[in-house]
Amino acid sequence: MSVVTSGRYTFPNYNLVFFIFLQLGLHSVEGVWPLPQSITSSPERYPLNPQAFYFTYGSQSAAQEGCSVLDEAFKRYFSLIFPDYSSGYGFLRFSVDKPFTVQVSVGRNDCDSYPDEDSSEQYTLSVSAGQAYLKAETVWGALRGLETFSQLVYQEDFGSYYVNKTEIEDFPRFQFRGILLDTSRHYLPVQAILKTLDAMAFSKFNVFHWHIVDDPSFPYQSRTFPDLSAKGAFHPMTHIYTQLDVRRVISYARMRGIRVLPEFDSPGHTQSWGKGQSDLLTPCYSGSTPSGTFGPVNPILPSTYKFMATLFKEVSSVFPDSYIHLGGDEVNFSCWKSNPDVRAFMLKMGFGADFTKLEAYYMENIVNLTAALNRTSIVWQDVFDYHERIPKDTVLHIWKGVPASYEAELRAITKAGYRVLLAAPWYINHISYGQDWRNYYTVQPLNFSGTEEQKKLVIGGEVCMWGEYVDATNLTPRLWPRASAAAERLWSDEKQTSDVDKAFPRLKDFRCELLRYFSFSDNAHGIPITHHRTLFYEVCLTYTDASVSLRLQAGYPGRASLCRTLQTRVPRCLIITDHVTFLSI
Amino acid sequence: MLKFVSLLLALSCCQGLHHNNIDDYVEAEPVFQASKYGSLWPLPQKVQISEVSFKLSSASFRIVDAKASSAGPSCSLLQSAYRRYYEYMFGSAKKQWGSKNNRRSDPSDLTELQVWITSPDSECDGYPSVTSDESCEYLLFLVHVMFYRSLETFSQLVSEDEYGAKSINATIINDFPRFQHRGILLDSSRHFLPIKVILSNLETMAMNKINVFHWHIVDEQSFPYLSRTFPQLSEQGAYHPYTHVYTPADVKMVIEFARLRGIRVVPEFDTPGHTQSWGKGQKDLLTPCYSGSKPSGSFGPVNPILNTTYDFMAKFFTEISTVFPDGYIHLGGDEVDFTCWKSNPDIQKFMEQQHFGEDYSKLESFYIQKLLDIVASTKKGYLVWQEVFDNGVKLKPDTVVHVWIGGRSDKEMSNVTAAGYTTILSAPWYLDYISYGQDWQKYYKVEPLNFEGTDEQKKLVIGGEACLWGEYVDATNLTPRLWPRASAVAERLWSAKNVTDIDDAFNRLSLHRCRMVERGIPAEPLFSSYCLHEYKGV
């Protein structure tokens, strides 16, 4: 058995005479979000001591020390499980507890691969005295299990950490659980994307759908066509994703078991492409002369397909995922209609006046291009609606309509034998007053009439955060915890999670956990949000400070009683007052 | 009297630096075009911007007191504002090439901003009040409060080209606010707001020339105000007795931070409804509700029939009147639920004695009347929510009635002013209600004086407030939810009545929001586009 020594990293053991006192109230295993498929736990609990806590690989495990994904994950989850300890405070222990080991075994050594469409995420977790066994087929399943384990750990008075005796068998209901971010309508700094990937892992999302370019801007810096971003980005230097940025996102995502699915939407939604690639877009005409404006990609020129072939060749070498999203939505035909060359082409091809045929012609060519690159295409539902002749392994992405209409669409697409992905009910960029997460939670993705075979074609769902009104200033609070509601719908068993009122307190607690996870960087105007675990520490620490004597004057009890009071009166979720401020008063 | 602005300085040459940071691509809907007023927000009353442009260099530029100014270096309020605005304009002054060793200025440089406070009393150590004059004229202005306003305006005139060079056009501005009371309400009871969030919001208010922070500090859910006289109110009534409270030092800090930015802090202690959290720390303050003939164990509004209630209120508001220096206190008085009062036999008896019949609004008025007398004795003026007026409570003539109920708020404004009371408007500006899209336009299009009434009546409208109630808002989302939506209200309350061009507003507000982002405030976007300097605080 090889021991990965997360627990042995020697943190300075400050001689702090302070202890953390707090009580989380009743801890419940239902605190795990999204809810595991099967979970049993008992009141029997075991203390965890960060100084005697280890992640190890099981002797039968196919992956052993040196497995990048798991080694990194052990470090990450150690910090998440013991936030005070790893934040460098350290604390004094009376005695050395018995060690606790989380033994991880995986059936396959896929440490250096990327998660893919058929990667298993199933795991079993068994927590007993001194030991937890986490077994999974793949490292990706092990990551999900580690997340669950971290959510099982809680903290009580005197800063002790506990985990209850628990048995979990878990696997996702749907294989594809995605979040779409739109980096074209507003540029999102890489940091904002990475932070979203972190949060996705907390909710067990596994696909980052990167809607990287669109009409407003083209921030992807292409190796082959650098002019696309040089001329099409909001700013050619500061508002682009370099190859290095993209690699960073992909590798950060991989470490969290998240696929990165790039979307290069065409033939519509391509205004920004035209700036850096002349003759790519269709010149619109007013009467018999070009009007100077441009429409969708020009589908009649061979140069278009040559360009696309080269671009997608690059894309498929940069993005390792086996899927590429080709868009194909909302093509406005008026420009094509105005152009005499396009009309002549229509005639030649025998399309009559049906421009959907022209669109289908274009999409078919693009899908074939990506097929030749060994990639599965995803396209928006429009492609199916206009034209059913598309390769069978194409995935359709439903984005339109109210339940009745997307259910009909699900029925039609699966009946035609295509795999399908549901996004329509989760357009999370649409905001409204109140608890709209309830709407996202109560979606029933398989509630359409169809055979079992048809239902199996629904590979999952996706939360879309379109960017018209979203940038780095408001992305995070707009996305979380609303997206977590969809996460549970896509991971957990629908029967066990049908009661939205029961979900409410769990989601409330989970949100507080998210606040802890996001160690919000404390910048000039940032908002310091710290979890209670460190918080009380600071309260006790500052107690000897002059500033706190102020508080004493205000009628506070002495130190001992302060800490004791904390022990008895601590709500679950606390947002700290800025302790720097209160130190400096 | 603030005289600001003599931005004179020698220069003859002028290069009209002309630029437009926004890309020429524009999406279907809002079309961005540079406004002739650049990024000024809210729009000054009178602006003339010439083509003549001066360069600004961080190395040579200074903000100084004019010789004749009544405020000098000892006015720390001004000095810290100079520094703040210098930093806004030049950022953390990325080293400019050549500027390090070369502090000589070009003839076309603008090297000095002179600030002239013209009133004999600079009010440096005072608090802004409802009568502070914020107007500011070219070469002749009043009172210092405006001073900030003018500095803010000046900083907004500074623009940056793509090489980071700063410049300013020769400009004449004559400015004053349309309304005196331009407020933001934050609710620190439904969610606790860390001090830092409040301070950063005050900073942003100053950027938008908003001058009243209405601190809805306590409510049903929690009582975070740490009272010196009744510390048990927050000990028992706050979400947490140490971490989720505002200590006297915290409150002082907020008030001083606001003062330095020319912002009044008006606290609200809402009674007799909205007081569940008060009851936890103050026994017998709330009315025990009955079910049948027995107390049900739950409590209703403040108990209006006990003398102890008024003793408590007298002591409590005496403290409040010393802690908060502003001339006004907001006393609430909204949404009183009568069911608990009705259930209580003692109250029923009292109703009988007082000949109130079944009209519980009379009981409410009875309470409010006594409360107003108590507060009046502390020499403070007061604001109340509109129900207090609606219920016919006798009010002091200088009471400010706060109109918040939507639907027919114009009718209410008409009634309140007809009765001779000053009023502020919030009904159309409940910013906690969110919806998809550019709802700032809705807030922008409001005309506060759009109600039936004489000119005299209209003069009684002293302003308005944007309210951000806290059910769904805490430190995680407050700033992007409030800004720049509240900026729309800010311009409506500051600028002239005829400033209603929504396209021009879009163009200026887009830049104004980017300026807030550049100053570190996560103000959310209006629509697809970008800022030269995106938000870095991720």
Automatic annotation (TrEMBL), chain A:
The active site is at E330 (proton donor). CDD domains: GH20_HexA_HexB-like. It is an enzyme of class 3 (hydrolase). It is found in: Lysosome. It comes from the Eukaryota. The keyword Signal applies. Its main location: other. InterPro entries: Beta_hexosaminidase_sua/sub, GH, Glyco_hydro_20_cat, Hex-like_dom2, HEX_eukaryotic_N. GO terms for cellular component: lysosome; membrane. There are 3 beta-hexosaminidase isozymes: isozyme A (hexosaminidase A) is a heterodimer composed of one subunit alpha and one subunit beta (chain A and B); isozyme B (hexosaminidase B) is a homodimer of two beta subunits (two chains A and B); isozyme S (hexosaminidase S) is a homodimer of two alpha subunits. The composition of the dimer (isozyme A versus isozyme S) has a significant effect on the substrate specificity of the alpha subunit active site. This is Beta-hexosaminidase. It comes from Oreochromis niloticus (Nile tilapia). The gene is HEXA.
UniProtKB/TrEMBL annotation, chain B:
Disulfide bonds join C75-C124, C289-C340, C514-C531. The active site is at E335 (proton donor). Residues 40-135 form the Beta-hexosaminidase eukaryotic type N-terminal domain. GO terms for biological process: carbohydrate metabolic process; ganglioside catabolic process; glycosaminoglycan metabolic process. Residues 1-16 form the signal peptide. It is an enzyme of class 3 (hydrolase). The gene is HEXB. It is found in: Cytoplasmic vesicle, Secretory vesicle, Cortical granule; Lysosome. Residues 179-496 form the Glycoside hydrolase family 20 catalytic domain. Its main location: cytoplasm. Keywords: Cytoplasmic vesicle, Disulfide bond, Glycoprotein, Glycosidase, Hydrolase, Lipid metabolism, Lysosome, Signal. It catalyses: Hydrolysis of terminal non-reducing N-acetyl-D-hexosamine residues in N-acetyl-beta-D-hexosaminides; beta-D-GalNAc-(1->4)-alpha-L-IdoA-(1->3)-beta-D-GalNAc-4-sulfate-(1->4)-alpha-L-IdoA-(1->3)-D-GalNAc-4-sulfate + H2O = alpha-L-IdoA-(1->3)-beta-D-GalNAc-4-sulfate-(1->4)-alpha-L-IdoA-(1->3)-D-GalNAc-4-sulfate + N-acetyl-D-galactosamine; a ganglioside GM2 (d18:1(4E)) + H2O = a ganglioside GM3 (d18:1(4E)) + N-acetyl-beta-D-galactosamine; N-acetyl-beta-D-6-sulfogalactosaminyl-(1->4)-alpha-L-iduronyl-(1->3)-N-acetyl-D-6-sulfogalactosamine + H2O = alpha-L-iduronyl-(1->3)-N-acetyl-D-6-sulfogalactosamine + N-acetyl-D-6-sulfogalactosamine. GO terms for molecular function: beta-N-acetylhexosaminidase activity. This is Beta-hexosaminidase. There are 3 forms of beta-hexosaminidase: hexosaminidase A is a heterodimer composed of one subunit alpha and one subunit beta (chain A and B); hexosaminidase B is a homodimer of two beta subunits (two chains A and B); hexosaminidase S is a homodimer of two alpha subunits. The composition of the dimer (isozyme A versus isozyme S) has a significant effect on the substrate specificity of the alpha subunit active site. Hydrolyzes the non-reducing end N-acetyl-D-hexosamine and/or sulfated N-acetyl-D-hexosamine of glycoconjugates, such as the oligosaccharide moieties from proteins and neutral glycolipids, or from certain mucopolysaccharides. The isozyme B does not hydrolyze each of these substrates, however hydrolyzes efficiently neutral oligosaccharide. Only the isozyme A is responsible for the degradation of GM2 gangliosides in the presence of GM2A. During fertilization is responsible, at least in part, for the zona block to polyspermy. One of its GO terms (cellular component) is cortical granule. Its EC number is 3.2.1.52. InterPro entries: Beta_hexosaminidase_sua/sub, GH, Glyco_hydro_20_cat, Hex-like_dom2, HEX_eukaryotic_N. Belongs to the glycosyl hydrolase 20 family.
